[in-house]
Amino acid sequence: MKEILKERQKWILEMVVKSYIERGEPIASQFLVVHCNFGLSPATIRNDFQELAEEGYLYKFHISSGRVPTDKAWKYFVKLVLEEKDLLEQCEERWKRLLRQKVQNQNWDQIIEFLSEASQSLGFCYLPATNEVKKSGLKYLFSDVITNPFLIPQIAESLDKLDEEIKKIKIKTQPLILIGHENPLIASDNFSALLTQSLRSANVFGILGQKRMSYEKNIALLNALREQF
Q1: Are residue 68 and residue 172 in the same domain, yes or no?
Q2: Residue 133: which H helix or E strand, with range?
Q3: How many CB atoms lie within 10 A of CB 121?
Q4: Which of 59, 97, 119, 135 has the greatest number of C-beta atoms within 10 Å?
């Protein structure tokens, strides 16, 4: 396998991931032609879709469907997000201003509620000093169960041991990003977890949410919490 993507394919892959984050459904070549101003024919994009699928970045559910990012594509996309340091810093500064306005220092219930609502995900904090895990936003884990009812038992089973799994995670990179099958917090590859450790203490902040979350926004949010609390 060649594993070297053309610049056009990188662009197409990035647009597929961004479009999937917004829409939550397979992305077809015609959609990119209409909405992304590629200046390419649907046939050219379909050929690139095929090559990206062969390299493990895209897959499709059936013959007539569009394409969906694989975990490999999500990792590639997150790498692009982390490289946009200026954009992340700008977003982080906005989060810091909001945190100062809305959250009282060391009010953990407020902090975790803010984290959950801002990320539209399950927000949590592990406080080693008291061996306590605080959580908010369980409702966001169940947001896709109408269209994916198979998620219900997977989520329910994971919730029974969620606190213990959070306590076991070792953060060696900041932020720690666990996508799909890499994520030990929930028995489903539909979710990702982002974690970071406070600069001031051993406290751990985290987000557990849909794999198609806004990584740029959520990484910047955790960076802000890491510095302020």
Answers
A1: no
A2: strand 132-136
A3: 27
A4: 119
